[in-house]
TrEMBL record:
It is a single-pass type II membrane protein; Single-pass membrane protein. The keyword Transferase applies. The lineage of its organism: Eukaryota, Fungi, Fungi incertae sedis, Mucoromycota, Glomeromycotina. This is Fucosyltransferase. Keywords: Glycoprotein, Glycosyltransferase, Golgi apparatus, Membrane, Signal-anchor, Transferase, Transmembrane, Transmembrane helix.
Length: 220
């Protein structure tokens, strides 16, 4: 470790492993020297930032936050998770307030971090999709860490605004637009048998079809 490094201490492991030990980030901001990541808790006093990976947090083994008073609160805590909240403490406002920053897949995080390293606007353009190649089962449940193929029409439920995630304004099916599960099921079945209607949801794979400005802003 060099004396002028910006030291980031991963207080927790990453899924039980000290994955980022001695990992160096050359650019950490225009006014900061390079960052060095460590899992070594003996560097607590020298650290500039503490990162806590949510699945590995042990509430019986946390540093004393009062130690930050010695350094004028210049040792912020970062909540890090690449998954949707699944632990009881993640819904506890008092505990979540202990973290000054968030690093997660959410676009409204202080430090958004997705699973995608490439330009998503290029990824979704290929491969080209043929209706005849579709699966015979009309619905698949896509969950975390699932590498879905590019020939599917997403069926989504959750926030009312999906514009950051929709390549066009006709590229996904929103559950709340149907009056009942039966209506949704009926629509899905009819869509699976209608090539023109189905492929209209995948028009963004045609390079001549413009992507929405909101989608490009987030993912290009």
């Amino acid at each position: 470790m060099e004396n002028n490094d910006t030291l980031i201490l991963n207080w927790t492991p990453f899924f039980g492993e000290q994955t980022w030990e001695h990992y160096r980030i050359d650019y950490c901001g225009s006014d900061l020297p390079p960052c060095l990541i460590t899992h070594n808790p003996t560097y607590l006093i020298q650290s500039h930032l503490l990162v806590f990976h949510a699945p590995d947090v042990n509430w019986e083994d946390l540093p004393d936050k009062e130690i930050r008073n010695i350094y004028n609160n210049k040792m912020p805590w970062v909540y890090y998770s690449a998954e949707a909240p699944a632990r009881e403490w993640e819904f506890d406002d008092d505990k979540m307030k202990m973290f000054e920053f968030s690093l997660s897949y959410r676009l409204d995080s202080d430090f958004p971090s997705t699973y995608l390293d490439e330009d998503l606007t290029a990824i979704i353009r290929s491969p080209s999709y043929q209706f005849k190649d579709r699966k015979q089962v009309p619905v698949a449940w896509v969950v975390s860490n699932c590498h879905a193929s590019n020939g599917v029409v997403p069926i989504v439920d959750g926030p009312s605004d999906y514009t950051p995630f929709a390549p066009t304004n006709h590229s996904l099916i929103q559950i709340d637009q149907f009056s009942s599960p039966e209506d949704l099921a009926s629509y899905i079945l009819s869509l699976s048998e209608n090539e023109q209607a189905y492929t209209s949801y995948l028009s963004y794979k045609n390079n001549s079809t413009p992507l929405s400005e909101e989608f490009v802003k987030y993912w290009q």
